[in-house]
Design a protein that fits this description.
It is a single chain. The chain has 6 helices and 6 strands, in the order H-H-H-E-H-E-E-E-E-H-E-H. The chain is α+β, with helices and mostly antiparallel strands. The longest helix has 24 residues. The radius of gyration is 20 Å and the shape is elongated. About 20% of the residues have low confidence.
């Protein structure tokens, strides 16, 4: 979906009904896939790391108005289309095998950021409605309330160190890592 389709969705959601571009009907799933296009990777590394300006937290009043206006223009809400949690960093082949098992499941990705490992499950929140937004906004969970617009993923690419979209990508990374370890061990023995 191009920028024009996204703008159509934004305008239509503000008007109170979702209308797609003429002759097109797209589900929330298709829209979220179109808007959530992770960068192509080679061996799990993002090709270009985006530069990020240091974000200053605005005052509470400014944050509330910015939060409301920022989130109103975010269709679909990218932060509501997945969840992510930290996992133990793999230390051996068994640990990597466990992570491969996770990646064998549909809509699961694994990434690293600042030497920490995370699992991302790309599954939309059941309380997100494309017309009305968050259906439980006043009583939303703490994690949602703590998510600051300055950290919003909608207008920026993710800045992961490594990003594995599939089983095969992590498997290839493991093979290269093992080969590197073997070369390192051989060079130590040769000394």
């Amino acid at each position: 979906m191009g920028e024009e389709g996204v703008n159509d969705l934004r305008r239509s959601s503000e008007a109170g009904a979702v209308r797609s571009a003429p002759g097109r009907s797209e589900s929330l799933d298709a829209v979220s896939r179109a808007l959530y296009n992770p960068p192509e990777t080679i061996e799990g590394r993002s090709p270009v790391k985006p530069k990020r300006a240091a974000a200053k937290k605005p005052s509470k009043e400014a944050a509330k108005t910015k939060d409301a206006s920022h989130c109103a223009s975010c269709v679909p809400a990218k932060c509501c289309m997945y969840f992510s949690t930290e996992i133990d960093a793999p230390e051996n082949e068994k640990d990597f095998d466990d992570i491969l098992w996770m990646l064998a499941h549909r809509d699961v990705e694994v990434y690293t950021k600042r030497r920490r490992w995370y699992i991302m499950v790309k599954n939309p929140c059941r309380f997100y409605d494309p017309l009305r937004g968050c259906l439980i906004y006043p009583s939303r969970p703490r994690i949602c309330r703590a998510h600051h617009p300055a950290e919003c993923e909608f207008h920026e690419e993710y800045d992961f160190d490594l990003h594995f979209h599939s089983y095969e990508e992590l498997e290839r990374h493991c093979r290269l890592r093992l080969a590197k370890k073997a070369r390192s061990a051989r060079s130590r023995r040769a000394r």
